[in-house]
Amino acid sequence: MKHLKSVGVLAVAAALVLTGCSSAASSAGGTSGATAKGGTLTILTAQTQIDLDPAKSQNLATTSLGLIARRLTTWQISPDAPAKVVPDLATNTGTPSDGGKTWTYTLKSGLKLSDGSPITSADIKYGVERSFAAELSGGLSYHKSLLVGGAAYKGPYTGGDLASIETPDAKTIVFHLTSSYGDWPWIASMPAFAPVPKAKDNPTTYGQNPVASGPYMVKSNQQGTALTLVRNPDWSASNDSVRTAGPNSIVFKMSQDAGTSAQSLIADTGDAKNSFGAQYLGAAQLAQVEKNPTVKARVATSKAGPLGYLAMNTQSGALKDLKVRQAIQYAVDKKAFIIASGGAKTATAATTLITPGIPGRVDYDLYPAGPDGDVAKAKSLLKEAGHSTGLNLTLLTQNDSASLAQAQALQQGIERAGITVTLKPEDANTYDADSTADTANYDLNLSYWQPDFPSANSNIQPLFDSSQIGGGGYNAARYSSPEVDQLIAQATAEVDQKKAQALWAEADKRIMQDSPVVPLTYTKQSFLRGSNVENFFIASFPAYPNYLKVSLGK
């Protein structure tokens, strides 16, 4: 899960997402439908290094690593429909048994690695096992606590094999979980579920040039300068429904200043015509783009993205009182917060916890306060709670200029209701440590959240399950509800996705009835392409371009 920094700090999307709802601009963003073959696509990124080891990656299924490494499952995404989990290396998204505690996969026929060898279930098993090794920490780790024996397993270099992953034959792999988990098909789309042949593994160097299972493989990897991918001759489009493999080669141009990259793409000359930016446009760049219709036509903008929210420490003083927390719902000036975030082009007001584009999301607003709040309602609730005057709250925020501007907008809005708000700005590392510590030193906490996979599970469980309070967990509201915990457990175990989605939607509204957080914004993100880049779009989820579909004009 992504506990994101402020919108200002999010300016380099690649750094957060390569590790990771369509607007009109998305459909105008070079989507042609057909995929031309050929040419060199350049992706401009601020990253100074790109590690392609799937065990260490937090990469979204539709961004950079997905060009090289296939997984058991993957995401089918489009501008006009919620994301869907689909088979990738496997013939289906998984067959559950034992009430969802066991998941079985069969590999497709004809799959090959870039060295010409067949992809086997043993390669998948080994790829998952190595993600447990201390040498390869940092990757997405959902599976580690779900697999039987995973809590104690140390990886294949010192711990042998993990018995809860069985490979009865070369095309079958079986996972045994500690409890029922209906979202396992999404987990199987994560980087660690890419095949890694044991004979080719060196944990210190594998990330420089991994054995490829996708349409591209590494030609050269010059850290800090450029990563160049070329076609993998052993990949076949006949068994890959999500990757179109348009360009002959793809170059990730590293260490690029975001502003300089944007200006290059705006000018649209030379190689820039065949390029796009991996980091999204800032407010100043968006304002510049808006003045030029030709450039504006080359921008793809998400309808929604990461959730910005104000967590209220439900274990702290007056905030233990539901009416006080509800008063803050009405006191917050979301209009001012959006202006501080860069305006309507960068964010839209949020009312729910589940991100738009996530299947099963239900739109609702329990606290209709108008765009700039309802101060009279807030004061009335505070009076009922016995806090008409004298209430002082501390707001934890990051100390970059964008976060401070947002925090000040929240401060000014809340103080209209008669609550004094003191800002507590901290650097990113200290802020993260304090947000997840066992004991909280704040009353309010300005946070952002980006789900790692398109399920409400990834929105709700990490932020509101009582098990995620302290100890490095991201329940910044310190919210504990046995009823909600039970709903989360029930939804997590439900294998029928329609039933699970209904439970997550119920949990969303039930949590908001307790008002532990104020949903502030869904962050909108805009990306710019060169004029010869085609099939460049942002899906309903995630709020980033789908690298697997991008191609070049003839």
Tell me about this structure.
The protein is an alpha+beta fold and 554 residues long. The protein has 17 helices and 22 strands. The relative contact order is 0.19. Strands 1, 14, 15, 16, 17, 18 and 19 form a seven-stranded mixed β-sheet that branches. The protein has a five-stranded mixed β-sheet with strand order 9-10-11-2-12, with helices on one face. Strands 5-6-8-7 form a four-stranded antiparallel β-sheet, with helices on one face. It is globular. The chain has helices spanning 13-17, 24-27, 121-130, 142-146, 156-159, 184-187, 258-267, 283-290, 293-296, 322-331, 334-341, 375-384, 401-415, 428-435, 456-464, 482-493, 497-514; strands at residues 2-4, 40-44, 73-78, 81-87, 95-97, 102-106, 165-169, 172-176, 216-222, 226-231, 249-253, 275-277, 299-301, 307-312, 347-349, 392-398, 420-426, 444-450, 517-523, 526-528, 533-534, 551-552. Helix 11 (334-341) runs antiparallel to helix 13 and helix 16 (482-493) packs antiparallel against helix 17. The longest helix has 18 residues, at 497-514.
